[in-house]
From TrEMBL:
<dbReference type="InterPro" id="IPR029045">
    <property type="entry name" value="ClpP/crotonase-like_dom_sf"/>
</dbReference>
<feature type="compositionally biased region" description="Low complexity">
    <location>
        <begin position="288"/>
        <end position="316"/>
    </location>
</feature>
<feature type="region of interest" description="Disordered">
    <location>
        <begin position="287"/>
        <end position="326"/>
    </location>
</feature>
<keyword id="KW-0732">Signal</keyword>
<feature type="signal peptide">
    <location>
        <begin position="1"/>
        <end position="22"/>
    </location>
</feature>
<protein>
    <recommendedName>
        <fullName>CPAF-like PDZ domain-containing protein</fullName>
    </recommendedName>
</protein>
<feature type="domain" description="CPAF-like PDZ">
    <location>
        <begin position="152"/>
        <end position="269"/>
    </location>
</feature>
<dbReference type="InterPro" id="IPR056186">
    <property type="entry name" value="PDZ_CPAF-rel"/>
</dbReference>
<dbReference type="GO" id="GO:0008236">
    <property type="term" value="F:serine-type peptidase activity"/>
</dbReference>
<dbReference type="Pfam" id="PF23658">
    <property type="entry name" value="PDZ_CPAF_rel"/>
</dbReference>
<dbReference type="InterPro" id="IPR052766">
    <property type="entry name" value="S41A_metabolite_peptidase"/>
</dbReference>
<dbReference type="GO" id="GO:0006508">
    <property type="term" value="P:proteolysis"/>
</dbReference>
Length: 738
């Protein structure tokens, strides 16, 4: 669906609304007092959105620090894998082109001229720029953004069709459930703040970190009230970069009734909120820099193998709400198997895979049971007479790469797995690789050896995609080589699967080395497998799904914008590795330390000329940043692009790839996920229909781009700073701001 919102917004005069405060109390003081009263009695303290905005916009701004921040952050952004292609994408890209480096310089110029009146607007422009890349691995969380999260928590919308094929309409989730219960006199939402409901949702979704517009549209809705782990998806209107600076949403229904939903700001400031002024808030959140925590390695520990995993005990996580009774499940619902009794599914098994996050910072270590339970369920399904299987990866945001390859090897075992990635080749990466490969690992400590290994830049630890050879030296690997305009390294595998696979901890059936993953032949024919998505499949999920598609597996994509066109199965980032900035910081400082050591020893690893360049391009420690970033994993880049056997130059996230079948959600699918499975099965294997018809030959890269579906903008997504005000105006149309 197309709209003229951007043109409309840019042609109107923005009138900023101002909140009305009781007496002359400072807005930050008012929030501080509310927090002191309420924080002990409730988990989340919230205040009116406009009050929070008034507090945030009372923060001062230090132009010199802002300029310096851009200069230092830009060095980290150079590690983003696809900068050049984002700025000049192929015609098949459905997202606006965005030149991130030029955008940063525009913000820098704005800051250097003293045109930012507060830290919040500077940070907002940074977030809008970075999020405009629609990359789930690319994230920035500046200091002021940690104070509040804006949300209209009572506003939960869905997009449902009468029959799964005809054009859907927007409803509140509450009303849609009434439709599912048999009530007919239920009105859809026609306007939000005076703008067409579907058009506004599509426009608002533009900063969602997904690369396909249908996936972004789904992200704004609660079409899947509970995901396959049983986690509620009840606050889709909680993205601060999307709903910021809007005080309320005024819904108009087809029957001319209306309802208003207030936007609230949930206090999320680290350590609570005791700030009495904008200056206090700036000093507390932005005045001091702390070193973000390095991401854990996630190395799994040894776990016992099991040929017939037991159903988890009653003390484990409960089965997912609203889903059928599972036949088998991993105790955290990471993978759940069903034999649904919905009509049309009598000979169909369903494997729900809501996540590939089999290891995390809490100590979760479930890769082995994840893979083993998946294989045991799939194998037993064939013994129990199931002829077909649906793999449900709706809302799967990815996770541990090994998990994706392990699950693929369950369906297509005993093969040499293919993996091809590239780093973006730039000076800082070249210096790090030159230094890391220029030292003798036998002459350094075990800690440094571990740092070198975890960097992924040591040539002797690399493997070509063929899994049979490595590279002669760093220069052989680094190049740089041109890959669709991106200066890139040579193709390199994620890892050597034969080495990585471990029968106890990392069971991946590659060349028969899967341990308990010991099948030798595929349990189902490719034409008897459906991968079911809602377009939000990202990261490791895309690696799994693309490998399945390469074998001829069919895909069904649910939801999306209300159009009669097909839809892509995969709408999330297809990059193979996310890297948090703190890990880049660690690698950079290791390079500095090793270089200094070589200079002291009289055997410098770089020439004098290169050392001068080294000082200019290497990232400084995050703890030395002029303005802090949020701690933990809330700042990251896409470190590696992924490629296929048939296209070694175009990153897969820029390849247009239609699902075999596109369907819409219905009222019944909201309350019974098995209805979604039956829809997909009937449309693919039965007499049902697909939106836009069945798409044949859906192997990756096989479709030509249909510019009637959408097209990338002729303009940069973020052309100038200070544009955050246009969004507030758009949403104020028809209702006004408080």
């Amino acid at each position: 669906m197309h709209s003229n919102f951007q043109a409309i917004a840019s042609g109107l005069v923005v009138i900023l609304a101002t909140g009305v405060l009781g007496a002359s109390e400072d807005p930050c003081t008012e929030i501080s007092n509310s927090y002191a009263r309420e924080s002990s009695s409730q988990k989340r303290v919230h205040v009116p959105a406009q009050l929070a905005v008034d507090c945030l916009t009372s923060m001062p701004f230090d132009s010199e620090k802002g300029v310096s921040f851009i200069d230092e952050y830009s060095k980290y952004l150079e590690f983003q894998s696809d900068l050049e292609l984002l700025a000049n994408p192929p015609p098949s890209s459905l997202s606006n082109r965005v030149d991130l480096r030029a955008g940063l310089q525009s913000i820098r110029s704005y800051a250097s001229r003293g045109l930012y009146s507060n830290q919040f607007h500077f940070d907002s422009d940074l977030m809008d720029l970075i999020n405009s890349a629609n990359d789930g691995h690319l994230l920035i969380t500046p200091c002021s953004s940690t104070a509040f999260t804006f949300m209209a928590s009572d506003l939960v919308l869905v997009s449902i069709s009468v029959d799964g094929v005809s054009s859907p309409q927007v409803y509140t989730q509450h009303d849609a459930k009434l439709l599912a219960a048999g009530l007919n006199d239920i009105s859809p939402v026609t306007y939000i703040n005076g703008v067409g409901a579907a058009a506004l949702i599509e426009y608002q979704s533009r900063f969602q970190r997904l690369q396909d517009p249908d996936a972004r549209y789904n992200m704004m809705l609660s079409n899947l009230p509970y995901n396959g782990q049983g986690v509620s998806n009840s606050e889709p209107f909680a993205a601060e970069t999307v709903w910021r600076e809007t005080s309320s949403y005024y819904l108009t229904f087809a029957n001319q009734s209306s309802q208003s939903y207030d936007v609230l700001a949930v206090v999320t400031a680290p350590g609570g909120f005791s700030y009495k002024s904008g200056s206090d808030l700036f000093e507390g959140l932005c005045g001091t820099t702390t070193s973000p925590t390095t991401s854990p390695s996630g190395t799994p520990s040894t776990s016992a193998s099991a040929s017939a995993p037991a159903v988890p005990s009653s003390t484990s996580t409960p089965p997912p709400t609203t889903y059928p009774t599972p036949v088998m499940r991993e105790e955290h619902n990471l993978v759940v198997g069903y034999y649904p009794d919905e009509p049309g599914l009598e000979d169909v098994a369903v494997l729900s895979v809501p996540t590939f996050e089999t290891a995390d910072a809490t100590g979760l270590d479930a890769l082995a049971p994840f893979a083993e339970i998946a294989q045991y369920f799939v194998g037993n399904a064939t013994l129990d007479g199931k002829k077909r299987i649906i793999v449900d990866v709706q809302n799967n945001g990815g996770g541990v790469v090994d998990s994706g390859f392990a699950l693929f090897s369950v369906f297509f075992p005993n093969e040499t797995l293919y993996s091809a990635t590239r780093f973006r080749a730039h000076d800082a990466l070249d210096f790090m690789g030159t230094i890391f490969n220029g030292i003798n690992p036998d002459n350094v400590s075990e800690t440094i050896q571990e740092g070198l290994s975890s960097s992924g830049l040591v040539v002797q630890l690399m493997d070509n995609p063929n899994q049979e050879s490595t590279f002669g030296n760093w220069n052989d690997f680094f190049g740089p080589y041109d890959a669709d305009g991106i200066p890139s390294t040579s193709l390199v595998a994620e890892f050597n699967f034969g080495v990585e696979a471990n029968p106890s901890t990392n069971p991946i059936n590659t060349d028969g080395l899967g341990g308990d993953l010991n099948s030798m032949t595929p349990p189902f024919a490719p034409e008897d497998i459906i991968v079911l998505t809602d377009g939000r499949c990202s990261s490791t999920c895309t690696i799994f799904t693309d490998h399945m598609i390469s074998k001829g597996v069919k895909t069904v994509a649910m939801g999306g914008r209300p159009s009669s066109n097909p839809m892509q199965a995969i709408g999330g980032i297809k990059g193979s590795q996310v890297e948090v900035l703190s890990n880049i910081d660690t690698g950079s400082q290791l390079a500095v330390s090793l270089l200094n050591g070589s200079i002291t020893a009289g055997t410098p690893l770089l020439t004098t000329e290169n050392m001068t360049r080294f000082e200019k391009v290497m990232p400084i420690p995050l703890e030395n940043f002029p303005l802090p970033l949020a701690a933990g994993d809330r700042n990251s880049i896409n470190y590696r692009n992924t490629y296929t056997k048939t296209d070694e130059t175009t990153p897969t996230q820029f390849v247009y790839e239609l699902a075999t079948c596109h369907l819409f959600y219905t009222a019944q699918t909201l309350v019974n996920p098995a209805v979604t499975w039956a829809q997909a099965a009937n449309a693919t294997w039965g007499s049902g229909s697909c939106v836009g018809g069945i798409q044949a030959g859906n192997s990756i890269g096989s479709q030509s781009f249909d510019d009637n579906v959408s097209s990338n903008s002729e303009n940069d997504s973020v052309s100038s700073p200070g544009t955050h005000t246009a969004l507030g105006l758009l949403l104020a149309l028809g209702s006004g701001m408080d």
